[in-house]
Specification:
By secondary structure, the protein is an alpha+beta fold. It is built from 54 helices and 30 strands.
Length: 1430
């Protein structure tokens, strides 16, 4: 009967029932008819061989089946379902036919019934079913038992009726035993009759071609004998005809169907069906511990063995239900032991396959593998032939069973791989290929499949299978890794003459943790030859498993709302981490991987994307990805040569090939911006529980990459090293409970700093500048006047009352009898051999001073050999002196006066300036010298060494230490001279202006630089421009080439020209339908380029003619940014995403297209640009040769937004905050102040304006602006050395910024948004460059200057100096001090000027104390500085 016929008949029957509802008409005939229809379609559904463990609605499991349509039609009739579960059951307490039919129909509908909704809220129904199942007559008793089986699947219902179950379970076990005996008797009576009937009616016409039954029987008998089951027991009570070979292709379906699928018959109810219903009830009850006594009492195991023997039981569905009950009983260890002692494994292996029962076996094997003790007993006690059959059986389940059977088989292997005997048999049967097939054949792994066509259930099932397969592969490769590493260790121990450790037993489970796996990987990385052959990895690589796992990782990142996403990706990455210890797999990871939608992605890019904290939010996945990266980049440079180790020449070849593998990995990671990703991960702070471990892994990966000379050079210029950021990160862990991980991070950080700097260093000296200075100090030869030391000792003896010793010393050393004692001075904050308990504040001898809280007023010598007491109590005669300046009596031998500066002493020009090293804890500066020198000290200390170490520490405080110094004095502080040329220009503007007549044109060396610093710290607002139209807003600005007009672009796409003298709007042009983002006029003023960011305004960019008429000349519909070439302006370069196009100005034709998909950096705001000579193009961080149209070099990516531009000098490229050398492609500087800034050069190319612009195309600019303290400011930098000049706060968002050709005016588009009223104030403000702002403007900004300084990064060095009193005011002083610092560093050629470029600097409110110039002089000065660059 077709689906339509059955559904039509069911609909008609339900309509008839609706008509007789509530009447006296008997509904039993109609109910029977519905039950017969459902049972018929259920039988047809079972013939489709559905998954027996699939408890979904038949309509979901198989949308084409008729049973699903029938059940949906029944469940839609709510009145009918309410009658079945309500009145029809409770209308009478006595049994009647209606009860039987209703229970039968409900049992037929159970496959699609929501049991929790039916039974959980209907306790009356459940109680009635318990009563009927216990004492009712057949078939109502069996139907009620079957309904209780569905009810007990709900744990809440089972818990509410625990007492009822305690009574019913032993009854059911006893009833099951009775029915089993009855089934055996019926089998004996019917066997001869059925055998004859089958031989007569089902004889196959071509049976003569089948295999011999004798051979089949012999094969089966051999299997039974190997299993240890007696032949008598196996052959009892069944005819020889049931020993069919189900694997034989000549067997007909008529013979195989009862053993593979089984049957379904509810009426009339046969003995097989009664037992099935009881077993279905007992299955959920088997998990409860309190019923275990009944299990052993009624010998349930014997019953189960009887049912699963398909030679004694012809109903395969009954065997499946028995196996399901067995699986629930295997949750109890006691039952498992009894099961194994009774040859349970052997009996399971005798279950026919393929069959429904074989799927039940898969669940039993999984439950067995879950218990490690049980598996250990299996591996140690069973014969090898049985274990081999067990592995083969599970492997068959991987390919031939239902979906649930495959999952159970995979999970069984994942638990059993820890036993080596199972692992070896798995490899012997080529199990890895079958496991790979399970993964590769899943629908969601098919790149050509339309995933939208897959049903939700199919996707979920496929993902579950992938998840379990990845876990199994992880266990498989981890165990192989342990075995291989252990073998290498044993072999290495034997070669070194040591006794190797005992090998792990094949019957014992491997015990390991993450740390042990990491050690094994390190062993493999160190000792794996270049051309090694490791069978598991080689086989998996040949199958294409590496590419498949990378595809899985990339695709699984988009699996939203799937709970197993993390486990899947984590397991796949762990497999890749193990495989990456071999060079061949590392080379595979350098290739690209195909992804859906015809997309190809580099393998390394996938790993870096997972490791990036912004892409992956799960810390376990991040750590797994970092583990793969570490194994790829941290491999040894020199590997063993494998089988070529016998020949020296071949050995060298192997070593070179091993180095080339690691070098290729370094290049691949660098090409895919691996350094940027690792630096970003190194700064991670979330999640707080895993951040320390993630940092340690990222630092270790950077340590591996730093072995590359090119990468090491780049790292040495990054703020992480030359700004002390790494030192800041190592101060303390993010979470105090993770100190162990933080210790690892500090260890890798120290090694990384040593690798980058090339010198041994301490964790407290984590900046390249401090390391350089320490190296200079270490090479300095320390000399001093020994008589000064003797004078100090003489004074010390006198102060302690040792007058005779002092006299003897004076006499023997021929010391002068000083009338005015010499003073011993030392730099501020440093004492002689301070102990940590003594404060840094010191006092002057013979004077009373306020002591620190932790010092005492008594004499407290710091060491037995100390030459000076910091706090000394003199005799009463000395204490009575009126003042510290009173000289001793004339002619008396007074003590040598020790003058040690207090920390509160005002600074003088002769004082030593505070260095950054003083800000480190004193305990870090003094290690061995803080402890007393004793007689038994083996360190070889002496007074001379102590004094030299003191003087060396004093020398280390110098800002610019040098290796060659004159003899030190113990009576005066040491200070290395500041490097300065004799003809250097004065820092004071007045003095420098006067010297210009002698030293033209700038008043001396670096005079122009000082002029620039003076001029570009002053900006005065004097004009504002607002759009006269309603709600008009400006979006960009530019000056005309004739310097008469200010050109402004608006949000509505208009170009407006304003007269600079009258501030009147001269002209307005409609250019685009969307906001303008850039304006550029040609030098001949005849052409102008306009760009628009929004794609809905077509065209996005255009070239306009500005002669007599303003008209569009060419359109660039897809380019969001266009600009002229620099030198001749006969070409235009346009940018669309990562593609650059060069156009001819005259014709508008495309001359060339610059795009290389393998070298793209995917900058968010990419803008292609020419170099000053138009020979090169920078597009998306890639340097192109215009003549050959080839990519020359891809610069490392350290930000996601700014693509960079050329320096007007033409030798450098600035990409965000990184400055690159075009000639060597080395990283020259990093300027943190330019981070995320849109850069604008002035016309001579000597000044850089940087501002974080607001972008309306996305929200990225808004986020960046809030993250930076410079979000509402523009900053000026000296373009010659990138030193910071000033920071000017406009207190508004900056949309655009531009300057005129003569540096007289600066135009800034300012926008102020009111979040409360949602209003905007938009205007263009014109500033005069070099002019001081008004006093009222200064007063408004004074309050914000200190706040801005407090928001600076604590990791930056604060080399604050006290300037000269004759210099400019406080803000200008800092700018000039920065200039002085830069000039000194530039002169010595040691430290880079960018070390101080990130200071906040002056805010533009500077005043020149005593130097009042009029406007004409300032403009003359501004014209003078544009001379030759310094």
């Amino acid at each position: 009967m077709t689906t339509i016929d059955s559904l039509t008949e069911l609909t008609a029957t339900l309509e008839t029932w609706n008509k007789i509802k509530g009447s006296a008409v008997d509904p039993v005939p109609h109910l029977k008819k519905i039950a017969e229809l459902v049972e018929k379609e259920t039988e047809a559904y079972f013939k489709r061989d559905p998954d027996p463990f699939d408890d979904r609605h038949p309509g979901r499991a198989d949308p084409d089946c008729s049973l699903g349509h029938l059940l949906k039609a029944i469940f839609k009739n709510e009145n009918f379902m309410d009658a079945l579960t309500g009145p029809y059951i409770s209308n009478s307490r006595e049994e009647n036919e209606t009860h039987t039919v209703v229970c039968r129909l409900l049992l037929d509908c159970m496959p699609g019934l929501e049991t929790s909704a039916v039974f959980q809220e209907n306790e009356v129904l459940v109680s009635t079913l318990f009563q009927w199942a216990e004492s009712a007559s057949e078939p109502l008793r069996s139907y009620a038992t079957g309904l209780l089986a569905g009810a007990m699947e709900c744990s809440d219902v089972a818990g509410n009726f625990k007492d009822n179950n305690a009574v019913l379970v032993p009854i059911m076990l006893q009833r099951l035993k009775t029915l089993k005996n009855e089934m055996i008797e019926m089998g004996k009576n019917d066997v001869n009759h059925k055998a004859t009937k089958i031989q007569e009616n089902t004889a196959r016409p071509f049976s003569i071609f089948a295999l011999s039954k004798k051979d089949d029987s012999k094969k089966l008998d051999d299997q039974v004998q190997c299993a240890g089951i007696s032949q008598t027991e196996n052959d009892a009570s069944h005819p020889k005809m049931h020993n069919i070979n189900v694997d034989c292709s000549n067997s007909s379906w008529a013979e195989m169907e009862p053993y593979i699928i089984g049957s379904y018959q509810m009426f009339p109810l046969e003995v097989h069906m009664k037992q099935r219903l009881i077993l279905q009830y007992l299955a959920p009850m088997g998990e409860y511990q309190e019923f275990l006594g009944h299990i052993f009492e009624h010998r349930a195991m014997d019953l189960i063995f009887q049912y699963i023997d398909l030679k004694k039981n012809k109903d395969v569905r009954l065997a499946f239900d028995a196996l399901r009950y067995l699986a629930s009983l295997l949750c109890h260890k006691k039952f498992v032991v009894d099961f194994l002692e009774n040859n349970g494994i052997q009996r399971l292996l005798l279950v026919y396959r393929p069959s429904v029962a074989a799927t039940g076996v898969s669940m039993c094997l999984y439950y067995l593998a879950y218990f490690e003790d049980a598996m250990e007993r299996v591996c140690s006690s069973l014969p090898l032939c049985v274990l081999n059959d067990l592995v083969r059986y599970i492997l068959w389940l991987l390919e031939c069973s239902h979906e649930s059977g495959r999952c159970h088989a995979i999970m069984s292997f994942s638990l059993a791989f820890q036993f080596r005997v199972i692992l070896d048999m798995f490899d012997k049967e080529n199990g890895l290929r079958r496991l790979y097939n399970v993964l590769s054949t899943q629908p969601v792994m098919n790149l050509e499949m339309d995933f939208e066509s897959l049903l939700e259930d199919e996707v979920f099932t496929s993902r579950q299978a992938i998840r379990h397969t990845c876990v199994a592969l992880k266990k498989y490769f981890e165990i192989h890794l342990i075995i291989k590493a252990n073998s290498i260790r044993r072999s290495h121990a034997r070669s070194e003459g040591f006794t190797p450790a005992a090998d792990i037993s094949q019957q014992k489970a491997f015990k390991y943790n993450a740390d042990f796996l990491s050690e094994c990987m390190d062993t493999m990385l160190e000792f794996t030859p270049v051309k090694t052959h490791w069978p598991p990895i080689s086989t998996f690589e040949e199958l294409g498993g590496i590419q498949l796992l990378l595809q899985l990782v990339a695709m699984a990142m988009d699996w939203s709302y799937y709970a197993g996403k993390t486990d899947t990706i984590h397991s796949a990455l762990d497999v890749l981490a193990v495989c990456a210890v071999t060079p061949s797999v590392e080379l595979k990871l350098c290739d690209s991987v195909s992804l859906p939608d015809n997309v190809s992605s580099p393998s390394v890019s996938i790993l870096l994307g997972v490791a990036d904290s912004e892409v992956s939010t799960d810390p376990e996945v991040q750590k797994a990805a970092l583990g793969v990266i570490i194994n790829c980049v941290c491999g040894p440079l020199y590997m063993l040569g494998g089988r070529f180790i016998g020949s020296s020449s071949k050995r060298r070849s192997s070593v070179r090939s091993g180095e080339s593998v690691v070098s290729k990995m370094w290049q691949t990671f660098r090409a895919n911006n691996g350094v940027m990703v690792l630096l970003k991960v190194l700064m991670t702070k979330t999640p707080i529980t895993d951040a320390d471990e993630i940092r340690a892994l990222a630092c270790r990966a950077l340590l591996g990459l730093s072995r590359s000379e090119t990468i090491r050079q780049i790292l040495s210029k990054l703020p992480l090293f030359n700004k002390g950021q790494l030192q800041y990160l190592t101060r303390e862990p993010i979470l105090q409970d993770k100190r162990l991980e933080h210790v690892k991070f500090c260890k890798y950080g120290t090694e990384l700093m040593e690798k980058v700097s090339g010198k041994k260093t301490d964790i407290s000296e984590m900046s390249l500048e401090s390391i350089r200075r320490s190296s200079v100090v270490a090479q300095t030869q320390i000399t001093y006047n020994e008589k000064e030391l003797l004078q100090i000792i003489h004074t010390h003896l006198l102060s302690n009352g040792l007058n005779e010793s002092a006299s003897a010393l004076q006499r023997e050393a021929n010391l002068p009898r000083a009338i005015t004692p010499p003073t011993v001075s030392q730099p501020e904050g440093v004492g002689l051999y301070h102990s940590p308990g003594v404060g840094t504040s010191v006092t002057t001898l013979n004077c009373t001073s306020k002591l620190p809280r932790h010092t005492t007023t008594t004499s407290q010598p710091l060491a037995s050999t100390s030459c000076i007491n910091h706090v000394t109590e003199f005799s009463s005669s000395h204490d009575n002196r009126p003042s510290c300046s009173s000289p001793p009596p004339t002619g008396s031998l007074g003590p040598i006066k020790v003058n040690i500066l207090s920390s509160k002493t005002p600074k003088t020009p002769g004082n030593v300036r505070t260095s950054a090293i003083l800000k480190t804890p004193y305990k870090q500066l003094h290690t061995s010298e803080s402890r007393p020198f004793t007689k038994n000290d083996n360190s070889g200390g002496s007074l001379e060494k102590i004094v030299k170490e003191y003087l060396r520490k004093q020398h280390a405080l110098c800002k610019n230490p040098v290796t060659t110094v004159p003899s030190f004095s113990l009576f005066s502080p040491h200070q290395c001279p500041d490097p300065r040329l004799r003809n250097s220009a004065p820092c004071n503007i007045t003095a420098r202006w006067q010297r210009k007549m002698l030293y033209t044109p700038s008043g001396g060396y670096e005079g122009a630089k000082l002029d620039r610093k003076f001029i570009f710290t002053r900006f005065k607002s004097f004009q504002t421009y607002q759009d006269t139209e309603e709600d008009g807003c400006f979006s960009c600005c530019s000056f005309s080439q004739c310097e008469k007009y200010l050109m402004l672009g608006t949000y509505v796409g208009q170009l407006k020209l304003f007269n600079l003298n009258t501030q009147e709007e001269v002209q307005s042009y409609n250019c685009h339908d969307s906001p303008l983002t850039s304006l550029q006029q040609s030098r001949d003023t005849r052409l102008i380029l306009t760009s628009s960011s929004s794609s809905w305004g077509s065209p996005m960019s255009s070239l306009w003619t500005m002669d007599s008429f303003f008209e569009r000349r060419h359109s660039f519909s897809e380019d969001h940014h266009v600009e002229f070439s620099k030198q001749t302006q006969d070409q235009i370069i346009g940018t669309k995403d990562e593609t650059a196009r060069i156009y001819d100005v005259q014709t508008g034709n495309i001359l060339m297209t610059l795009f290389d998909p393998e070298k793209t950096n995917n900058y968010v705001r990419n803008r292609a640009t020419f170099n000053p000579t138009d020979d090169l193009v920078l597009n998306d961080g890639v340097l192109w040769d215009v003549r050959s149209c080839k990519a020359i070099h891809k610069f490392d990516k350290f930000n996601s937004y700014m693509s960079g531009l050329f320096h007007p000098q033409g030798l450098e490229i600035i990409i965000n905050s990184e400055v690159w050398d075009i000639r060597t492609f080395h990283l020259l500087h990093t300027v943190p102040g330019l981070d995320q800034c849109q850069i604008t050069f002035n016309y001579p190319g000597t000044i850089i304006y940087g501002a974080i612009h607001q972008f309306d195309d996305d929200d990225i600019g808004q986020e960046d602006r809030h993250k930076s303290v410079y979000g509402s400011t523009f900053r000026t930098f000296d373009a010659t050395d990138y030193s910071h000049i000033a920071t000017y706060d406009v207190k508004k968002e900056i949309l655009d910024l531009n300057c005129d050709k003569n540096d007289r005016f600066l135009a800034v588009i300012e926008n102020l948004k009111n979040q409360e009223t949602f209003s905007e104030e938009n205007l263009c403000r014109l500033y005069k460059v070099g002019m001081l702002r008004d006093q009222d403007e200064q007063g408004d900004d004074d309050d914000t200057e200190d706040d801005d300084r407090e928001e600076e990064d604590p990791s930056e060095d604060d080399d604050d100096e006290e300037g000269d009193n004759n210099e400019l005011s406080s803000a200008s002083d800092e700018a000039e001090d920065n200039n002085e610092d830069d000039s000194e560093i530039s002169f010595t050629g040691s430290a880079s000027s960018e070390d101080r470029s990130d200071d906040l600097g002056s805010l533009g409110d500077q005043s020149d104390s005593g130097d009042d110039f009029d406007d004409d002089v300032l403009f003359e000065l501004s014209n003078d500085y544009t001379g030759p660059l310094d």
